[in-house]
Amino acid sequence: MGGRLTRVFRTFNVESRARREISKEKPTRAPRHPTSRLDELADHPEIREEVYRKDNRLLTLLKDVYVESRDPPVRVKDGGGEHLPCKLEEKRLTKLGHLGDLDVKKVSKGKISIVEAVTLLNNHKLHPQIWTAEKIAVEYSLEVKEVNSLLEFFIPFTVQEFPKETKKAI
């Protein structure tokens, strides 16, 4: 409804508004500022002559300069050579779900996989006395504060099946 109303106002008297805008006098462009460098050269020919004159003493000094550069030899890294030091993370085996080969096998400590997250949320929902935040934190190597936030803000879906209506009820 609002779109139709705005379209009416937008298309109202379009041609006459366009003609009025086109027939307006065009604004004149601002004048360019004369550059000071060109003005000085035009007023003083001796400056222009000094700028364009070659200095033989400077040219001979420039010819004496010799620059030599060498690239370091390129080394090809082979696979079995040096390894860069990397941060070693502690890994733990995951509690595998029903997907088997598709599940993640190892997860860093302090993190959980999607399957584990759904499992722990469902366990807590079904048995909150058994699966407390402290037990979940110990079981999955998490911090208690993070587990409390997880249990507070994430709720697993529940599937509810309603009885099918019979033909007589329809």
TrEMBL record:
InterPro entries in alphabetical order: NDUFAF4 (IPR009622)
Gene Ontology CC terms, in alphabetical order: mitochondrion
Single biological process term from Gene Ontology: mitochondrial respiratory chain complex I assembly
Pfam short name (any one): UPF0240
Family: Belongs to the NDUFAF4 family.
Subunit-level organization: Binds calmodulin. Interacts with NDUFAF3.
Name under which the protein is recorded: NADH dehydrogenase [ubiquinone] 1 alpha subcomplex assembly factor 4
Organism of this sequence: Halcyon senegalensis
Gene label: Ndufaf4
